[in-house]
Structure formats: C-alpha cells, structure tokens
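USER:
I wish I could look at a protein chain and see how it folds. I am handing you a single protein, as its sequence and its fold in token form. As I understand it, each token names a local backbone shape. I hope you can help me see how the letters and the tokens relate. The protein I mean follows directly.
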Amino acid sequence: MSPEGHRPEDDRNCAGARLDDAPAVQVATFPMPAGFVFDWHTHTDHQLAWAASGVLTVLTDTATWVLPPTRALWIPAGLRHETRSSGTAVMRSAYLSPAQCPVSWPEPTPVAATRLLAELVGYLEGDDLAADQRAHAEAVLAGLLEPVTMATIELRFPPPGPARQVAQALAANPDDHRTLEQWGRLAGASGRSLARAFVAGTGLTFGRWRVLARLQAALPALAAGHPISGVARRAGYESASAFVAAFRRETGTTPAAYFAELPDPAGPASPPA
C-alpha cells in the first residue's frame, strides 16, 4: 500500500491471472484525485496508460514519464512501475494480452494519443460488443500504436545516509538554494563527504543532480499548461530563460516543444462520449 493509502491491486489486472475467456484488450477507467498513487506493481498484460484528462506520472526503476493527454505510455507486461497524479486526472488504461497482441515492445514506449486512438479505447471499454466488432477494433488499435520520441529525465537517489536525506529534501523543495556546506550542517556531514556521496551513489555531481531534480519536479506543471514563468520560479530558477536553457541542455528541446500537441487530422485526443 502506498503512503497515500492506495493499493496497487486497485489498478485492474495487477499481477493477476488473465481469465481464459477474457477479450484480447480490456479497458478500465480510474478517476484519480490530486495526489493519488498506484504504488509499485506489475501486470500480467501489457498496459497502455493514458490520461483522458489531467496529467499522469509513471515511474519505473530507471525513468520517469510525464504524460499529458496527447501521450500514452506502453508498459510491457511484468515491468515494475508506479502511477500517480499530481493534480486531478482520469486514467484510462487498455490491458493487452501478450499472447494475442502483435505489438511486443520490451521497454516502456510513449505513443501518440490521437483522437482516433482515444475513441477506440473508449469503444473497447464497452461490454456489449459482438465478437467480430471487438476483434476488428482490437486490430485497429494495435495498428494505431505509433511510437513518439520523448526524452526522459532520469534521477537516481543516493543510498540511505546523509546524502539521501539531502536529496529527498531537495526533491520536495526544488527551489531550495542552500549549498552543500549548509546542507552538511543540517545532515551531520561535511560538504566534501556529501559531494563524494552524490557522485558515488548517483553518478552525478551534486550540482547536476539538483538541476535534474528541479526539471523533473517541473514536468507535471509544464504538462498541465501552467505559465512557464511560474513553473521556473517554483523550480528554483530566477528567470524563465534560465529554466528553458537548462531544460534544453538536458532534453535537447524546449518545454513547449516537449509537450507540444501531436498533429492529428481528426483533432486533439479527448475522452469518448
């Protein structure tokens, strides 16, 4: 159970056996209030996680994916992950049987959440479809899974100890400007020992780690469309231009381009009626 009290089992098909007569694609919708967390878990099926509204954050052991409604994330069967919402969101997930799915990407893969894909996912949530209707819709859905490039900001924490305490405090308050020496006085370690611990435990200098922590903390607000000036300030930057420059250095693109809506002749993704 997560600190917020939400069992991973609440996420449909979590580590459970698939019934023999279950359809190849099962869909479930989860209203998620702000701060809701599906704690670390796995699925026996592949999962296509999509925010029908709001913003989702999916964490794996090696990466964090922030998903606005224009993106969905393919999560391969058996991959340990956590899903959360910083604000109010609705997650609509499709669960695809590995034995019946023509797609078998072995790694988490962001895909374009076009309006047609969104409509199909909603259509497959119905339980009154004829077998041929369902089979056709499932085949079309698989054909619509189009990978898109989406850089991630990977952030490892140091092992337990003073450096980890500092890292956790910075992750909670990314606009904190204290130096390593100042942190050391609070954590009971010298600035030099903290610097060595960050490099040994994360492979990054303290300064680089703090930049990545700030950028990662800013992603949900950026995805939700908040003004960049306010996002930059809350992330610890004195100006929007400094924040954009740091973001470009780490991801190769600007915040606006990172979360830009994908071209879709049918219009933007939206929940099915």
